[in-house]
Amino acid sequence: MNPLEEALKIKDEIVAWRRDFHMYPELKYEEERTSRIVEEHLRDWGYSIKRVGTGVIADIGEGGKTVALRADMDALPVQEENDVPYKSKIPGKMHACGHDAHTAMLLGAAKIIAEHRDELNGRVRLIFQPAEEGGNGALKMIEGGALEGVDAIFGLHVWMDLPSGIIGIREGPFLAGAGIFNGKIIGKGGHGASPHESIDPVPITAEAVLAFQTIVSRNLDPIENGVVSVTSIHGGTAFNVIPEEVEFKGTIRFFKREVGEMIQRRMNEILEGVTRAHGARYELSVEELTPPTVNDKKMAEFARKVAEKYGLKYGEVPPTMGAEDFSFYLQKVPGAFLALGIRNEEKGIVYPHHHPKFDVDEDVLHLGTAMEVALAFEFLRS
Predict the structure, then answer these.
(1) Whether 375 contacts 299, CB under 8 Å
(2) What are the respective helix, strand and coil percentages of the chain, to the nearest 5?
(3) Cα torsion for 16, 17, 22, 28, to the nearest 10°?
(4) In which band, very low, low, confident or very high, does the pLDDT at 288 lie, cut at 50, 70 and 90?
(5) Structure pTM?
(6) How far apart are CA 283 and CA 246, in angstroms?
């Protein structure tokens, strides 16, 4: 069985599935329609099914080792701006990160694997996961038993930073760990004409935000990586009233846990010093969303050998400060998170992930399916 030849046979079917999912996007933990379609196909093909909320765990084969393949299913609260026949039919919701393609590619792999189940030397587990976009759906799937008995796991993400059709493989840190912070500067309100009678939280907040920009540039070794981004500030409602407080929020990113801890420590130290200097107070909470996504060295090398064996073009993909909850799976079992290039300037497919004009080059989706099938069969043979 040649995975590439088999994937080519169902290329149009994979595209049709992707377009259907694209037209009916569902946000995190709302993936009722998507998961129902997935489950119906998997049952028809002979998989045993376990539901975890809106997630689906599907097994086929028995004995020997178990390899898992994962796809995420949720969309984003984005209004699509593409003028295409398969444009989202749900106002304010869009598959702007390619999860529709991930689900379709893994469905294609599921069909091929089922057709060749007699050739399996073990068990394949398919994980169709909800809520990757900020919902930590991976944790829900793990709690539901997704990794029980699993020896290795692989995931695939369409990637705008790679030329269309190239499979990106990287060992070690690939995506960053991410955290959300929410803060508040609490001063003393007053009249805008009498600032001396107040403790104005607006300039105090401005001072703190500017100081945050020195955390990475002046506290982190230049060869390391870190990000502190304040993305929202709210305070006051009237032109002549100094507000009592100003709220702010944003994100931190890091590849090493000690860097994330340093960033949080320095944020607190800066806020403590700035507010104390002005007679104000502060509140700060930091919630870690996901740890860094770190690919197992042996599994990354295995993926390279698999791609080479079946003539799939591959190359190294650079690390990114984006985050992925696939990291939770990699904390439990060896595996690798791979990328499938979809950038095609001739087709105008150049917009970044989460953009209202994001799209994928559908002509290469079967390559993702082929890689998933090849990874499963080759791992079970190894």
Answers:
(1) no
(2) 40, 30, 30
(3) 180
(4) confident
(5) 0.93
(6) 11
Backbone angles phi, psi at 85, to 5 degrees: -60, -25
Over the Cα atoms of the chain, what is R_g?
23
The beta-strand segments (E) located in the chain are: 48-52, 55-61, 65-72, 122-129, 152-163, 167-169, 172-175, 177-186, 190-191, 226-234, 241-242, 245-254, 281-290, 293-295, 314-316, 335-343
Quote the CA–CA distance of 313 and 294 in Å, as a whole number. 22
Residues β-bridged to residue 286? 181
Residue 245's CB is within 10 A of a number of other CB atoms, namely: 20
User: Rounded to whole angstroms, how far apart are CA atoms 106 and 225?
Assistant: 33
Q: Which CATH class is domain 3-174+292-381?
A: alpha beta
List, in order, residues 6 or more apart from 160 with CB less than 8 Å away: 342, 343, 349, 350, 351, 352, 353, 358
Which residues of the chain form CATH 3.30.70.360? 177-290
Chain region(s) in the chain for CATH 3.40.630.10: 3-174+292-381
DSSP annotation of 199? B
Inter-CA distances, 38 with 12, 263, 370, Å: 17, 41, 19
pLDDT of residue 289 exceeding 90: no
Residue of 321, 266, 333, 312 whose CA lies nearest to 292: 321
Q: What is the pLDDT of residues 264-282, one digit of tens each?
A: 999 999 999 999 999 999 9
Between helices 32-44 and 99-115, what is the axis angle to 10°?
Answer: 10
**pLDDT tens for residues 215-247?**
999 999 999 999 999 999 999 999 999 999 999
Query: Read out DSSP for 209-220?
Result: HHHHHHHHHHHS
Pick among 1.20.1540.10, 3.40.50.10170, 3.30.70.360, 3.40.50.2000: CATH of 177-290: 3.30.70.360
Non-local CB neighbours of 346 within 8 Å, separated by 6+ positions: none
**Cβ proximity of 339 and 159 under 8 Å:** yes
Is residue 217 a contact partner of residue 226, using CB atoms and an 8 Å limit?
no
